[in-house]
Specification:
Elements (H helix, E strand, L loop, with lengths): L1 H9 L2 H27 L4
Length: 43
């Protein structure tokens, strides 16, 4: 159990959260474009 806590403590959570947010932003762009194209809307 101590090894698992040590591993979690060694993770740089700031970097993980930043990469996650960047990934969500990168994925959201094409998703919005496809939704607009599917619904026949325009920008």
């Amino acid at each position: 159990m101590d090894a698992a806590l040590n591993l979690l403590g060694g993770i740089n959570w700031t970097v993980v959260l930043q990469l996650t947010s960047v990934g969500l932003i990168v994925v959201a762009g094409p998703v919005i474009v496809f939704i607009l194209a599917f619904r026949g809307g325009n920008l």
